[in-house]
Every structure is written in C-alpha cells, then in structure tokens.
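Escalated from tier 1: zinc ion holo job.
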Amino acid sequence: MAQKQQARRSRTVRSPENGEQAMIEGILEGSPDAVGVVVIRLDCGCRKMAAVSLSGDPASKIIMYRDNAQSICDQCKDDHGDAQRVVKQFISWKATEPDQATMTMISRKVFGH
Ligand SMILES: [Zn+2]
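Tier 2 regenerated the structure:
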C-alpha cells in the first residue's frame, strides 16, 4: 500500500476574517508575480503577510497589520512579530493554484519545513 501523506492544512475555516481576506486580495492585486500570500497570525491579533512567487521567493514587502486598528500593537512594534508568538501560518493561494508539488515546494521554502 502506498502511503500518501497529505497535509490538509488549507482546510477552509469559516471565521470573521474579512479584514484578512481583503488584505490578501489587495496584496495579490499589487503583486503580479505572486501565486499566493503568506499569512502569519500572531498571538496579539496582528498579522504579518507577504506575497510569494512561483519560485517561493518574496513577491512583495512584508506587511504587518491589525484588524480595525490604525497600526500594529506595541509589542509588534517592538519585536516585529517574533516567531515565538506565531499562532498560525499558512499560504493563501490565488484562485488559480499552482500544482501540489509546487505548493509543497513553496511552503517548504517559506516555512522551512
Ligand atoms: Zn501585535
């Protein structure tokens, strides 16, 4: 039996993340080379995002933002969203996703695993 290890991390979760979704769309629009947006949620409620290209390289600047706020929180200003405080990280793919192998390659490159 072939053992297939499928990471089902991109399960759609319904949540009131409208601000996040709007940001993702905005980043994709501004980054023609992007195939997706890396989304990093921090324990304070701020988010870190950056577009990623087909080769797994950054396709935009890293953007930090906080829902319904003018700016990110003081802690993020201090530590710029330290990796210790990440609660969830994933890639939000464009509607036309790359193939599975490419998505895996990009995820590995971005997250290092
Ligand atoms: Zn924060």
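The first strand starts at residue 34 and ends at 42.
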